[in-house]
Amino acid sequence: MKKIVKVSGELVDNAYWQFDGDTVTITYQTDRELLAILAVISRQHVVIEDVAAPDNDFQLPGYENLELSTQNMISDAIKNGIGFHVLDETEQIIKLIYGDHVEFIKAGNITRLDSALSHALMENKIVTKDILKTAGIQVPFGYEFHQIEDAFQHFDKLPAEFVVKPKSTNYGIGITIFKETTTQADYEQAVKIAFENDEAIIVETYAHGTEYRFYVQDDAVLAVLERFPANVIGDGVQTIKSLVALKNRDIRRGEHHRTPLEKIKIGEVESLTLSLQGFTESSIPDAGICVFLRENSNVSTGGDSIDRTDEVATFYKTIAVKVAQALDVTITGVDIIISDATRASDYYVIEANQNPMMQMHLFPAVGQSRRVTESLIKLLFPEIS
Ligand SMILES: Nc1ncnc2c1ncn2[C@@H]1O[C@H](COP(=O)(O)OP(=O)(O)O)[C@@H](O)[C@H]1O
Ligand SMILES: [Mg+2]
Predict the structure, then answer these.
(1) Any bridge partners for residue 105, and if so which?
(2) Across all residues in the chain, what is the average pLDDT?
């Protein structure tokens, strides 16, 4: 089907549209595809007359039910004149077509370029640590346990500050971080929580420093984010609960990865984290005080992100690429805790993610957007660039 719309601005023709000075003729198959094409055009600094602008600059109208990374992948496919089909909305599997070149993408960045084996190696943090250590990359010192009793008996051998985590969960699930001397009972509790989520666990030294996520594609670091655990800043008037509600009103915060950031929840882990700092959700923090609701800095648990791609020293980018090479992967998200990211300093690689979140680089809470979706399209379709 065709639709002609009046526009002001400049547009380069592609398979979806033809520009002729003040109108654009759009070729589309379905109404939702038309909505998406209109949104993509309006994001090329082109004003479409008589058509309302999209509600926000991060979602793709017509495809909001997909994960944000898949929405943006489709958006960049349209921008580059690549055909697309959503094959499975639940599993986020799409097909991209350019001439007779076909590519499949699952969940934003799982492609034929990475093997199921590499993914399995990254999924397993015990195996990842072993491979990285052998490659001469620094990882936190630690132990692995397959039996709960063995873990219990190791308490005396642990460093003062340590982390207990399942060997292969994501999103900070089942992780307990001990930053002060703890008791055997608290340690056993953490071990139980980790074993509830997995059949094996890691107990490793707590790494001090600032946490960064390096997004690696094809032996290059495309984006670096500094990540902070979920937090609110006091104003001396409102409770933590209402500060959280206020922060969650930001349209960029949503649920289930349909938006750039996730809403902060006040659940069991958050209440515990608050109580360790002497707060409850009804406490009123002083003006300017930053209160953390989690220890782990995953964006999935309400964390914040700042783009630091241009600030982080090349030293660490080289390490992130070395991690990808050791695991033999094209795409990975490497978590590194660094003492001073502006120069070579102490660092620890925490893990490598096999399906790293893309939306936090596309839309960081603060700083420049890094279009990792379009970079992947250009890698998969070298003929378009
Ligand atoms: N050894 C460690 N030292 C300090 N913080 C850690 C350590 N291990 C994990 N963390 C914190 O917990 C978060 C989640 O741990 P991670 O191993 O990346 O698991 P997940 O797969 O759930 O993201 C990290 O992003 C970091 O904030
Ligand atoms: Mg992680």
Answers:
(1) 94
(2) 95
What is the whole-number distance in angstroms between the Cα of residue 24 and the centre of ligand 2?
44
- Say how far apart CA 360 and CA 339 lie, in whole Å: 22
Q: Report the alpha-carbon distance of residue 119 to residue 106 in Å, rounded.
A: 13
pLDDT given at position 55: 86
* Whole-Å CA distances, 47 to 7, 34, 105: 6, 16, 31
| Mean predicted confidence (pLDDT) in 52-63 | 90
Could you tell me the residue range of the domain that residue 157 belongs to?
A: 146-205
- Each residue's pLDDT tens digit, 118-152: 999 999 999 999 999 999 999 999 999 999 999 99
Whether 171 maps to a domain, the answer reads yes
Tell me, using a 6 A CB cutoff, whether residue 335 lines ligand 1: yes
- Cα separations in angstroms, 181 against 98, 163, 187, 203: 58, 12, 10, 15
Count CB neighbours of 285 within 10 A. 20
15: in domain: yes
Does the CB atom of residue 230 touch ligand 1 within 6 A?
Answer: no
CB-CB contact of 133 with 202 (8 Å):
no
Task: Tell which residue, 39, 14, 15, 72, has the closest CA to residue 376.
Answer: 72
The verdict on 91 and 156 lying in the same domain is no
Q: pLDDT band for position 60 (50/70/90)?
A: very high
**Which CATH number is 177's domain given?**
3.30.1490.20
* For residues 76-87, average pLDDT: 97
What are residue 48's DSSP bridge partners?
7
Centre of ligand 2 to C-alpha 166, Å, is 12
What are the pLDDT digits (tens) for 1-41?
Answer: 999 999 999 999 999 999 998 999 999 999 999 999 999 99
Instruction: Compute CA distances 291 → 166, 210, 225, 275, whole Å.
Output: 26, 17, 21, 11
Amino acid at 49: E
**Candidate from 119, 162, 297, 335 with most ligand 1 atoms within 8 A of CB, to mutate:** 335
33 and 92 housed in the same domain: yes
The residue with tokens 């594609």 is 217
Q: Say whether both 10 and 87 belong to one domain.
A: yes
